[in-house]
């Protein structure tokens, strides 16, 4: 049975780069790796509807915090069987955005913190009712909100097909979401968390990825990643 690790963070934080580094570190050890990324805008109708709403489609759908969260949850529910199969087939399964994204963004939109009803509702909906497999560990890519926002703008300037959506363009929402993510880390919500930051160099990121993969796959000496683990890494970009 493999280990499922969810990589979380703000839009533009650099999650995809970290996922690639973790996959490289695992394969270098001879491990097999599976990968998922949510939302699956091109593969799931619920995610597609949510994506269209984020860009102004479907009337007032985007305005409903719970309706948007349900669409994102149904996207993950639709991937539950293949994700579980990947967990059984591979040593490490990396997920770019997962259940915690729904909790963080929805709570931020509601103006709640981690102890508010929205986070509990997401847990009951996704893990309890829809049967989305819980991850074994999380990594939060923590970056200042202004840096994440600049990366989103730079990405859109380089690729006109990646115009910022309604969440990405809302700087105040991103700041509130970052605060909720930090609370999820403190509470070890759903699974243990580790944190990677934005300073350092490429070699530091590689060492961090190698160390975490060693722990997750049971080949290291430092034990499980706990909620207090915080590793500063290089400036990573999507």
Automatic annotation (TrEMBL):
Every Thymidylate kinase-like domain range: 7-157
Domain of life: Bacteria
GO molecular function, one term: dTMP kinase activity
Region (Disordered): 217-238
Keywords: ATP-binding, Kinase, Nucleotide-binding, Transferase
Family stated for the protein in its record: Belongs to the thymidylate kinase family.
PANTHER family, sorted: THYMIDYLATE KINASE, UMP-CMP KINASE 2, MITOCHONDRIAL
Protein name: Thymidylate kinase
Gene source species: Actinomycetospora chibensis
